[in-house]
Amino acid sequence: MSEPLRIAWVLGWALPESWFAPLAQAAFPASAHTFFSATPDTVERLRTAGPFDWVVGHSLGAQLLLAAGPLPGRVALLSPIFAFPREAGTGGRTALTQLKYLARWLRRDRPSALADFYQRAGLDVPPAAADLPLETLLWGLAQLETVALAPVLPPGWRAWCGAADPLLDADRLHALAPGVEVVPGVTHHPSALIQEFAFVVDRDVPGALPGPDAESALGSKRSTYSDTVISNSFSRAAAGYHRHAHVQADLAAWLADWLPEERAGRLLEIGAGTGLFTRHLSGWPGGVTATDLSPAMCAAGRAAVPSADWQVMGAAHPLPGPWDWICSSAMLQWAEQPAEVFIAWRRVLAPQGRVVAGLFVAGSLPEWCAVSGDNAPLVWRTAAEWRAELARAGLRVIREDTTERVFSYSSARGFLRSLHGVGGAPKRRLAPVVLRQKLRDYEARFSVGPGAGVRATWTFYRFEAEASG
Fold it and tell me: Residue 49: pLDDT above 90?
């Protein structure tokens, strides 16, 4: 068994480990994490604790790494700072007078000063969680005020900055240091930037090109993966899932149209993720138990829809019934043995119970299949095949429907980022040079229009079934 990835995280100014750590752990659930607050001896402590596979700095933490010289691991920067004051002209948006005022305010009323900073920076940090000493906070502000570094990324370093960052001008940073990648729609909040870093780490697997049966950048010739692989993939995606899950949200809304007008009975949702479909179950009289294989997904869903009873559970091992309703959205396509899953569901279904589910089927992602040699995230089953699997389990389809939906993405890479962002590519082993060529082919063949991005087609399938006898 391979050793877990060792990642060191150097945090931004006034960011408590108790707030930052869950974001990193959700993106890398199987990794070993070490967290360092931004203090005068951070770099020394980092070198003593190393080596690491990756050293990641956010905001002030990124500036400390830029100023440190050689470090004990590969380096990634989130919201990198070369010089923070606006007057320096290297991407900072904050005036020197604002920094000086913040220092005075901290001395006078620390909770109010921190609350104002978090609000301005777009950080959902509870001010009471900021447990760093006042002296450390003032030292950090002094660093931001006085340190000015050449806007250059060392060779091999990776860096990302959000286009909507209220503290940094991402376009200016990119112009000065082209290695800084601008992430559309993202702010100073580290969660989405951590996902960008995770995307790079997951596809950065050394070695030769894969053989005909090897997993690719978007999946494999196998139709399914083990529960562990799937759980880890979706756990990594939990923190930023909602930002990428436009297709899944559309499927959830389409499936919700088939919910009964008169809601009654106990309902079990399987593969609930972060609650996209669970939201449509609000106020269900008999109560809703929402489940998912991934603990991180359950945690995110519990925060989004606290009215449901959230529990970790695999699809093939449902909680004891009887359940009047079993619902599932955007999960079943991952089932390795669908009939076995449906048999398990039938066992816990009430005598007059119903199964209502929506999933992706054959006809999904034909554009990617065309440029990748049919190497899609899954080997899609047809609606007829799903109907047969239900029949094998003793479930009769009462009604069913399919629809084709076309979605637009900013670029081929944006499409790929979205797929990875929802955990939909558990294994990624395509050599970067080959992947880049496939993305170029995708944009050449499936562009929506000049400067308008690319398209990707998904085929939705929904069904309602009951026990056949």
Answer: yes
When pLDDT is cut at 50, 70 and 90, the band that residue 27 belongs to is confident
- Return the CATH superfamily for domain 227-467: Vaccinia Virus protein VP39 (3.40.50.150)
156-181 b/e with 16+ CB inside 10 Å = b?
ebbbbbbeebebbbbebbbebbebbe
Whether domain 6-203 has CATH 3.40.50.1820: yes
| Between residues 443 and 232, the one the model is more confident about | 443
Domains 6-203 and 227-467 share a fold: yes
Q: What is the mean pLDDT of residues 360-383?
A: 81
- Measure the CA angle with vertex 145, ends 142 and 147; round to 5°: 90
Alpha helices in 337-453 (DSSP H): 338-347, 366-372, 383-392, 412-421, 432-445
CB-based contact 281:258 (threshold 8 Å): no
DSSP string, 287-333: -EEEEES-HHHHHHHHHH-TTSEEEE--TTSPPSS-EEEEEEES-GG
Per the structure block, which two tokens stand in for 289?
A: 């138990």
Type of residue found at 402: T
Query: What residue type is assigned to position 396 of the chain?
Result: R
What is the pLDDT at residue 450?
72
Q: How far apart are CA 167 and CA 188, in angstroms?
A: 7
pLDDT at 113: 94
Of 430, 429, 452, which is closest to residue 439 (Cα–Cα)?
430
pLDDT, tens digit (0-9, with 9 covering 90-100), for 65-99:
999 988 999 999 999 999 999 999 999 999 999 99
Structure token pair of residue 28: 């890398």
